């Protein structure tokens, strides 16, 4: 077997990993959306050697490989994921137009098919504020400015269309691109055709991949949502979560691009009641950043982890976070792949907020 194929997970292991997760997990979504998220989880498992991969890493595995291994139509999968993003974009457009929609589409289906959102009533303007903050908080330039102000190391990167044939010719793989610092190589990557433009998006050799600019502990998506709720309110927390969901879904869609940022820019340019600015983005970015000394001790849930139901309590992590933000009782559970107890995490949130003024936030 060639080295190229050694870096892509075998179809039989992909199918086994999907079957094991599908049998063990229930997400707070429709089954169709659950399937989409489990497929993306397989990509993470293959890259890190988790689940059915049992320690063997396949860093060049993409959702395209996974869709084909599961005998799904890749274009149908892309379309379904794109539709979920479009629903959130349409929600933002309706609010900008003066409507006050619930957290549902015009057919009465909750956004992302998350049943919990049927019962949450928030000011739509606050949801757009969360989408604005969430659309920019991962931007590497925003993080760099927060690093400059605070002396913290956060790290970061962004998604690019990558020609995998060029990647292999350069002796690189998906894990190296995602884990190592490449900020000063981006122009070289473009010149050599590793990073390509949108016109090549549907070339079979081109995949949307994450390239890290700077190494660091990163940020916690859990902290971003909870901090948004504690600093502002429940609606902003919900908007932050929706932006995070867009960031997850955009990695395999019909129209590639930084979709959470695009929604944030649309809101910035068109929503006259935003009442937020870049200082709010910097503040949220700092509060969501993981302290270097606590690396691995602050949960950072994937979308699947946010929505995975703990059947002992019939509660998912997203529900736990939103209950905590409102000051309501919540069941004890562990969060993310790290298995951090939610009470320990919320104690960390309170401590970070109490000390944020020391860094000007």
Give a brief outline of the structure.
This protein has about 350 residues and is mainly alpha-helical. The protein is built from 17 helices and seven strands.
Describe it.
The chain has 361 residues and is mainly alpha-helical. The protein has a 3-stranded antiparallel sheet with strand order 2-1-3. A two-stranded antiparallel sheet has the order 4-5. It has a two-stranded antiparallel ribbon with strand order 6-7. The protein contains 17 helices and 7 strands. The protein has 3 domains: 3-72; 79-149 and 219-359, no CATH class; 156-214, no CATH class.
Q: Treating each run of at least 4 consecutive H or I residues as one helix, how many helices?
A: 17
Main sheet: strand order:
2-1-3
Largest sheet: 3 strands, antiparallel
SS class: mainly alpha
Strand composition percent: 5-15%
The unreliable regions are none
**What percentage of residues falls in helices of 4 or more residues?**
40-55%
Q: Report the span from N to C terminus.
A: 54 Å
| Mean of pLDDT | 95
Search tags:
3 domains; single chain; 7 strands; three-stranded antiparallel β-sheet; mainly alpha
